[in-house]
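Researcher: Go.
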Amino acid sequence: MTSSLCAICREGFSRNECVVNANGVHWHQRCFVCVQCLQPFPDGLFFEHEGRKYCQEDYELLFAPICSGCGQYIIGRIFTHKNAKWHPKCFTCYRCGNELNGEFVKYQGNPTCKPCAAAARAVADSKYLCARCNHIIDTDHLTFKGEPYHPHHFDCFDCHQPLTHRAKELHSHLFCVTCYDLKELSVCAACKKPIEGRAVSALDKKWHPEHFACAHCERAFAGERFYENKGMAYCEIHYKSFLETRVFTAVRVPLIQRSQSLARRGVRSILYVMDVI
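Model: Structure:
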């Protein structure tokens, strides 16, 4: 140690003296102090500026910027935006509040995470934002579990072919139109097509609500009472009209009635009975 000198007082070190070594430079313990307050460094922690060493308190007062988020001094990594300084944990998305970690875009002049910026632009442009990739959907979207998606993110659950925006959801899975129609779905008794949503059960059949209508006027019942005749459904008006205008087929049934009065006059009466069909 006799060949080394203290970096402050330029004096040598005694044989049994405790020497401070920082970055290959040596100090007497009494000389290793803050250049501002001349006090020893608490726990040996110091901060260096232009080759001079400071305790944390003096360094913060003299050189450390103040965080625009929390108002505390910033020691270490700094984020800068609009001439303001931020702790990394305080530099957050303007919309969702999540840490940006240095990756952000400006939206309306404010630091915003990419998903929030994309969502805001989608709303402004009246477009959907894909729930998987967080990118704007410029073409027709596919809806799955109530969320919009790009169709190319999915394949048909049965045939594994790429899906289009016309894909159908069934039992928490997505199917192409062909595979969907092949499932055991109710078929409308009127149009013979699968019933995808609400169905009407009547006359031992299933119907689209808009297709379950009066057999005469074709007006949908929409929850109103209907009347059945020979497997056909009628509204009240046309059912009553049907009853009133039915055709009667006359079946001649000669019943020879010989009443005492007619018999006395030698006249035979024939009664015709009408059979309703």
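Model: The first strand starts at residue 19 and ends at 22.
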